[in-house]
Amino acid sequence: MNRFAKPKQPSELGLRVSRGVVGGKDLLRVELTAPERPPLTPDLALVLDRSGSMAGAKLQEAKAAALALLEAFPERGRVAVVAYNHEVEVGGLDRKAARAYLEALKASGRTALHAGWRQGTLVK
């Protein structure tokens, strides 16, 4: 999901230079302007440990933080939730499904940290 938009052609910058004297001091003002572009679509992959060691308050706090982040994330953004214990599961590939997936998440199993984080980088 780590993608950066690359321009198809070089951008043109606007340049405006002005100078003046203020309080006996020479001042030079340089202003650069860039062409208007549509905002990029942000991507967010929430990766949560759902192993047995996260049971109780730990998982509840992680879920609450993930839900708050989901609510604050721009509507135009794409989201995914990756939860792992000894297995990795990708759920919630849209905002509504992500919310439902997070709310239903339960702690169980062993921890395979590397597999969970790796899958979070691969979600498309």
UniProtKB/TrEMBL annotation:
Q: What is this protein called?
A: VWFA domain-containing protein
Q: Which domain of life is it from?
A: Bacteria
Q: Is Secreted one of the keywords? A: no
Q: Read off the InterPro entries from this record.
A: VWF_A, vWFA_dom_sf
Q: Which PROSITE patterns match?
A: VWFA
Which residues are in the VWFA domain? 43-89
Q: Which UniProt keywords apply?
A: Plasmid
Q: Which Pfam families match?
A: VWA_2
Origin organism is Thermus thermophilus
* Gene3D superfamilies, A to Z: von Willebrand factor, type A domain
Q: Which residues form a coiled coil?
A: none
Residues in the signal sequence? none
